[in-house]
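hey so i finally got around to running the thing on that chain from the lab meeting. sorry it took forever, my laptop kept dying and i had to restart like 3 times. anyway pasting the input first so we r on the same page abt which one it is
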Amino acid sequence: MNIIKYLIFLGIISFAYGQEKAYRKIFWSEENSLSWKNFKGKSQNSNNKIAALSFCGIQYNSCILQGNVYKYKVKAFFVPQLSWVRVKNEHILKHEQLHFDIAEIFSRKLRKAFSENPVEPKDSQVEIYQPLFKEYMKMQELYDNETHHGILEDINKEWENKIHNELNQLIDYKKEEICY
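ok and heres what got predicted. didnt touch it at all, straight out
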């Protein structure tokens, strides 16, 4: 398992089960893009091909409002203390922002899945979250592989268009809370 996959997996698991350390999280927002000041971690990776690493993922929580009415709150997050940079330029920053945007795509997909598949909160992890999380991990890995971690600018631009189109297609699921 490569380091990016491992870090994302570790972060999702710890956040999903409420065992997180006191890391400050930045939640995804259209109004606020990442900046280099958000990357506060130190590189733990000896692979010099990686210019930066964004530790981002998806968290959700659920509750029962009344009877069989469930409420889910889903957010894409970025952890500054676990994100780091070796090479600072606008192209690399845009590449890292797109990793965060992919997390938002899957937050919206998760909201959509919750709204279309009424499962009890106790079943949501296995039935809805885990299959989408696997798809999320594949997309993050494919993005890095195809762009060579952002080095191939033309392919990165293609991905940027693809990601923004997908965010727009899921605009109905932009709201963090889902009730059904």
